[in-house]
Amino acid sequence: MQPDSTDPQSDPTDALSAVPAAGARRATPVTGHLRFYYGPMDCGKSTLALQVDHNHARQGRVGVLLVRMDRSGRPQISSRIGITRPAVEVSAAADLRGLVRARWAAGQRVDYLIVDEAQFLTPAQVDQLAELADDYQVDVYCFGIATDFQGRLFPGASRLVELADELRPVQVDVLCWCGLPARFNARVVAGQVVREGDTVLVADTADTADTETGQSTTEGDEIVSGSGTVGATVRYQVLCRRHFRLGDLGTTSGVQGQLAFA
Ligand SMILES: [Zn+2]
């Protein structure tokens, strides 16, 4: 909190500050902020999303949890360490401003949004989140994977990099088989790293038939029914940049990324 310039107790050196005096600042609307926490799969993003929600809720703030497609296939944010919270499933066509306005119209508060699997948002939805922050003072916390199996930004992640006030790498190191930090999610088919194919695969798994499934939602193997690789078993493995580049899965191919707390 900046001291009020009319306060006789205020520091006179404030006059040199680049921050406008309180009177001038009244003309500048308060805005919410848009943050993007990103990291490779298995780095603990969903756990952090639930922790951020808990911290705000404890302060008496009211938030809405959104998810584009959780690994569980249900409308909830579920972390790998077992904590789960109900969430609103967001379709590609959903207008996030409308979702928040509907809550307000029903007399509910919305102080903040938690968005998990934010890489699957459409760029237009990220624009809507920025508008909610700027014009409606809603704080938005997005969590997601930055890059796809080709090492390129997901459309939603790309727009978040462009618009977010803050970009925060999630500070849990996921390790490549060689021990270096793993920043890339390689798609592995029949023991080989593949670099071609759909960004988001259509999976045909037991309880989520005909459901869009992205790489972060993959729990173990999935059967691809997408273009060109019908019937092949696909999995994802985290790799460091060098081994992602070389397509080198190491001698213990099949071992998923291991967690180490930084
Ligand atoms: Zn490596």
TrEMBL record:
SUPFAM superfamilies: P-loop containing nucleoside triphosphate hydrolases (SSF52540). Its EC number is 2.7.1.21. GO terms for molecular function: ATP binding; thymidine kinase activity. Residues 1-14 have a biased composition (Low complexity). Belongs to the thymidine kinase family. Keywords: ATP-binding, DNA synthesis, Kinase, Nucleotide-binding, Transferase. Signal peptide: none annotated. It catalyses: thymidine + ATP = dTMP + ADP + H(+). GO terms for biological process: DNA biosynthetic process; thymidine metabolic process. PANTHER family: THYMIDINE KINASE (PTHR11441), THYMIDINE KINASE, CYTOSOLIC (PTHR11441:SF0). GO terms for cellular component: cytosol. Residues 1-24 are annotated as: Disordered. This is Thymidine kinase.
